Amino acid sequence: MSSRERILGRVRRALADVPPGEDAAIERAYLRQHGDLSEAETVDLLAENLADYRAVVHRCADGELTDVIAGLLTARGAKTVLVPPGLEAGWLGHATAEQVQDRSESTAGELDRVDSVVTGCALAIAETGTLVLDGSPDQGRRRITLVPDHHICVVRVPEQVVSSVPQALERLAPARPLTWISGPSATSDIELDRVEGVHGPRTLEVVLVRDQEGA
Does pTM top 0.85 for this prediction? Predict the structure, then answer.
């Protein structure tokens, strides 16, 4: 018996008591999160784990976001910034960099010449320090966050922050193109020499922005 036949046999036995055409309920008895963190502690954990993955974390109130983004682009020396079609217009209101619109006909070479990209996110996972993008209008297509060397990602706290992966999966639409980002792009060779920017941005900056009432 081949491995394939063995696996399929186990699946058939597991589904033997399920009536044809009906979905079997899946037991999900695993922990949905570790510990009982407050809202503020969950955001702090996210910031800590993002930094542990070598992302650069900034915090600000909603009214400060425009200046923060402009400052990050200036500090980077960015002359051009890629803009997803649904990004809030006010976010780049004080930026001096030329805004480049995402176009379907843009080549990888053209995207590589863009200095920075600014996006929102679908949500962020505190326990793993992970940002999830789902291709919504404020995030754009996956390629615009993989080719430019500098990515600024805005996370609204606390509403876009969840504690764990199970909580994230409950809120994400599985049919959307999900991109899971834990820190800047990096890889290591057999000697564990770390190289950043191999298959994505070399620098990831995350802005945790809280509305004025919660600031």
Answer: no
